[in-house]
Specification:
It is a single chain. The protein has helices at about 15-35, 65-75, 100-110, 145-160, 200-215, 240-245, 255, 275-295, 330-340, 345-350, 385-390; strands at about 5-10, 40-50, 50-60, 90-100, 125-135, 165-180, 185-195, 230, 245-250, 300-305, 315-320. It is α+β, with helices and mostly antiparallel strands. The strands form three sheets. It has a four-stranded mixed β-sheet with strand order 1-6-7-8, with helices on one face. A four-stranded mixed β-sheet has the order 4-3-2-9. It has a three-stranded antiparallel β-sheet with strand order 5-10-11. Helix 2 links the parallel strand 3 (about 50-60) and strand 4 (about 90-100). The two termini are about 35 Å apart.
Length: about 400
């Protein structure tokens, strides 16, 4: 008898209040790195109604107008219409950014310090990070989150193209997929909720998005007559964005990663420079897992890394292939450790992370996108041959 279950994942567009916060925080990171690649940034953003608050710790020689960076980020999202209370041309702004604690800095800096015991760059914090890859999609991502992101991005493209002038920035998507014997079989449900102007009916929205989004963007072989389509299931969605809900940086960590299919260590990404292993080591773990799967060593791979603050080496490296390995797991682990270095400083070098690339990562998933491999270096499958050779495959 076949084993069947349904798994769902969601995505949110850049106009969702939490993603507004992520977008602003990453814009601050990039503004710092444009002038000073040694910047240390931990920028948190809160948005509510027409208020934007920056908080956190930043140590940088960069000089820029923080309010102007925030304004450009909001404009890029598309909060420029007068029927939204949150508006790039008229918002209140509070900058409460301070400097990084010197106690943390001495642990991270590639220099000696009292009781540190070494002169290497250490991890910016303790914590655990995960990376995941599987053969379900061409991007080696789980199918539910991949299709949720795809719908969200295409919905935003419809809005920004002007195809439907009633679309507004705040939207959510969700895709449920039935798995049979571990393989994606069919889409059982699609949920789309989008903010809109007051001059369009719910019936018009449902008809337009069914025709111009779902029917166009989802594969016919996964859609069936039984697929449940729910578009704006509550009816009206006029009040949205920061007016409808307070937004905070780092509250969409499952959307940012694997949609719940792969595990998450708990640390958020946006607003952080790569000395924070919450971000850089998670990118590293995805790079490794993706290359393991792309090399054909396993159909699924999850990598866990763990760090201690100020320490230059991970305290553990764990690989799990869930029984899908094509060569012995011990050979895969040995190959991973031979091909990759997991020191924080080496992660930054291998992935070329000291650049203003972080605004490219914020929306529609930090993983699985191959639209800009120059920026998203952890999506490259450039270590396949090295892994095969090291594993004897």
């Amino acid at each position: 008898m076949s084993n069947s279950y349904i798994f769902s994942s969601e995505s949110v567009t850049e106009g969702h209040p939490d993603k507004v916060s992520d977008t602003i925080s990453d814009a601050v990171v990039d503004a710092c790195f444009e002038q000073d690649i040694n910047s240390r940034v931990a920028c948190e953003t809160m948005v509510k109604d027409n208020l934007v608050v920056l908080g956190g710790e930043v140590t940088t020689s960069s000089q820029f107008d923080h309010r102007e960076v925030v304004k450009k980020a909001i404009e890029g999202i598309g909060y420029t219409t007068k029927d939204c209370k949150f508006d790039a041309s008229n918002f209140l702004f509070i900058n409460a950014l301070g400097q990084q604690s010197p106690d943390i800095a001495q642990g991270v800096d590639a220099a000696g310090a009292a009781d540190k015991g070494h002169e290497e760059q250490g991890a910016g914090d303790q914590g655990i990070m995960f990376g995941y890859a599987c053969t379900e999609t061409e991007s080696l991502m789980p199918a539910p989150i991949a299709w949720s992101h795809h719908l969200g991005k295409k919905l935003t493209d419809l809005r920004k193209s002007g195809a439907h002038s009633w679309l507004r920035p705040d939207s959510k998507t969700q895709v449920s997929i039935e798995y049979v014997d571990g393989k994606p079989k069919r889409i059982t449900a699609v949920v789309i909720s989008t903010q809109h102007s007051a001059d369009v009916t719910t019936a018009e929205i449902r008809e337009a998005l069914k025709k111009d989004l779902i029917d166009v963007e989802l594969p016919e072989d996964l859609l069936t007559d039984d697929t449940e389509i729910l578009i704006n299931p509550t009816g009206l969605f006029i009040i949205g964005g920061p007016e409808g809900d307070c937004g905070l940086t780092g509250r969409k960590i499952i959307v940012d990663t694997y949609g719940g299919m792969g595990r998450h260590g708990g640390g958020a990404f946006s607003g952080k420079d790569p000395s924070k292993v919450d971000r850089s080591a998670a990118y590293m773990a995805r790079w490794v897992a993706k290359n393991v799967v792309a090399a054909g060593l396993a159909e699924k791979c999850e990598l866990q890394l763990a760090y201690a603050i100020g320490h230059p080496q991970p305290v553990s490296v764990h690989v799990d292939t869930f029984g899908t390995n094509k060569v012995d797991d011990t050979k895969i682990v040995a190959a991973v450790k031979e091909v990759f270095s997991f020191k924080p400083a080496d992660i930054i070098t291998q992935l070329d992370l000291l650049r203003p690339i972080y605004s490219h990562t914020t929306n529609y998933g930090h993983f699985g996108r191959e639209d800009n491999l120059d920026a998203l270096t952890w999506e490259k499958t450039d270590k396949v041959d090295d892994l095969k050779s090291a594993a004897g495959a």
